[in-house]
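The record is passed on directly below:
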Amino acid sequence: MQFRASFVVALLGLGLAAVQAPSQTPTRTLVESPHQLVADVMYNELRDRECDSFWQYRSVRVSGSQEVVREQVETGQGPIFRVLEDHNHPLNAQQRQKEEQRLQDLVTRPGAMNSIEQDHLRDEERLKRIIQMLPEAFLYEYDGPAEGDEVRLTYHPNPAYTPSTYEGRVIHALAGTLVVNQRLKRMVAMKGTMLYRVDFGYGLLGYVDKGGTFEIQREQVSETHWKTHLVDVHIQGRVFLLHSVAKDQREERSNFHPVPHDISLAAAKQLLDQVAGSPAMAELTSSKR
């Protein structure tokens, strides 16, 4: 009897252990849904744009027949820039004089910056609307495992989403990839291809052709701010979204550093003048003659 009792207790113990075993298994980490990750990222992008943050940077821009190197400073009245090189050659004396006159006019003539400022504000509003629509306009899927902090997603149009603006219709026709920093919840890169032609007013008001591509890449420039360092757009059609971006353009930006949030146009021009007259720029000019 004593043996039987011990045997029964042992069986009960094994049974209890078997019942409790699943609760001792480590809980699997829940992976954030792609939609929620993108929503968090776009929320942070919008919040960043609302902050007063102006920057100076170098730009290499190729668009159509244009191929220039510019130094650009962002201000509350819009960005101003000085062209430093044209088609891999420093500006000659006549071109430098023309640039100086153009900048002097922007800084000193009342209203000279109005159109630049208005175009900039319209671009900012369009970008805001585009960022707001991205979480709902597409269906997202993870594209492989994360690499460090970065994770890659694919996206394609969400058939349940109906865009209400011209830019919304163009954006909704895209499919491609999105790379985000999942720890900081920020956009790192985005690529897209137009899946089909988009007509406005049956093509009478404009159109964007199938097959066009775009790519943007962003980098962290401070603890809280990110800036776009590559814009590569190749879109065919009679309508595009942003005044500051051509339909066929590649622009690489580098050497970001902050400037005061209340910087004046005159102070911004002084920064551009310093770069144009710096020893490094003089050395670059003499080496390419």
Observations:
- The first strand starts at residue 54 and ends at 63.
- Residues 43 and 85 are 38 Å apart (CA to CA).
- The chain is about 35% helix and 30% strand.
- The chain has one domain: 37-287.
